[in-house]
Amino acid sequence: MLNRPPSRLDLLRFLERVQLADLQRTRKWIADEERRETERRRLEQARPPAPDWVVQMSLGAQHPMAVHVGGCHMAGKHFRGLTREQAMRARAEGVDGCGHCGVDAELGYLD
Fold first, then answer.
1. Contact in structure between 82 and 104 (CB atoms under 8 Å)
2. Which of 11, 71, 73, 107 has the lowest tally of Cβ within 10 angstroms?
3. Helix or strand holding residue 81 (H, E)
């Protein structure tokens, strides 16, 4: 039995199978990304609100370094949330106030 070259129709059917497999893979990638995006949105909505006031802590969280308005990018990565009263107390106890975010003006704190 001689092997004959595939016909044009055979080649087109092969191409169709390849393209259907590609389409199926692409649809799976889309569904996976939609699931990830839904989860990201759910986590973002479940995130607690940012505190109004934060205290920047030293490396190792041993000592308070500065009081900031919540969301101030100068607070760095090591901070904890405060109530207004805790922020006022920290300032009264000598913890510096951030000059960048104007925490003293926001608190109404006067030396």
1. no
2. 73
3. strand 79-82
Classify burial at 20, counting beta carbons within 10 Å of its beta carbon; exposed 0-12, middle 13-18, buried 19 or more: exposed
In the structure, what pLDDT confidence band is assigned to residue 111 with cuts at 50, 70 and 90? Answer: low
What is residue 1's predicted lDDT score, i.e. its pLDDT?
61
pTM to 2 decimals?
Answer: 0.60
Output the CA torsion sign for 39, 40, 41, 46. Answer: positive
d(CA 33, CA 63): 43
**Which residues of the chain form beta strands (DSSP E)?**
53-57, 64-69, 79-82, 96-97
Q: Determine the Cα–Cα distance for residues 81 and 25; give it in Å rounded to an integer.
A: 46
Q: Is 12 left (phi over 0), alpha (psi -120 to 50) or beta?
A: alpha
Please give the Cα distance from 87 to 55 (Å, whole number): 8
Whether 77 contacts 56, CB under 8 Å: no
Domain ranges of the chain: 1-47, 53-107
